Hints:
The chain is an alpha+beta fold. It has one domain (9-115): Ribosomal Protein S5, domain 2. The chain is 36% helix and 17% strand. The chain is built from three helices and four strands. It has helices at residues 15-24, 58-75, 97-117, and strands at 27-29, 33-39, 46-51, 83-89. Strands 1-2-4-3 form a four-stranded mixed sheet, with helices on both faces. A hairpin with a 3-residue loop joins strand 1 and strand 2 (33-39). Helix 2 (58-75) crosses helix 3 (97-117).
Amino acid sequence: MAALRFPARMRVRLDRDFRRAYAARLRRDLGFAQLLAAANGLPHPRLGISIGRRVGTAVRRNRIKRLLREAFRLEQRSMPAGVDLIVQVRPHEPRTLEDYREAMLRHAPPLGELALRAPDRGRSRPMDGTEAADAG
């Protein structure tokens, strides 16, 4: 079995990618967080985490981020390719890794499939700033 890794290419880091996921408006409530999805046009899924100071101290926020990244890393083969998944964390006590894994496994694949089928909801735009001109 190949090692499960979480390299930089599997992370959503750019503001425009977060904005695309917010604009796609495909969301699921996880209780402790909200999960958003948007097609990214890549051959693999990516994870982005949005966590504010309201969630708690830096120690708490970093623990939650580590657990969410690990849950994604372990379940990445269950995630649909070509989807950006954004987790907007709400204030909560950190849960166990299994809780985060189970939430990812239950909600991310169906939401990702929906993002892939949705016509132009959050689809990637060309990165060089060019767009096809409207015929008309």
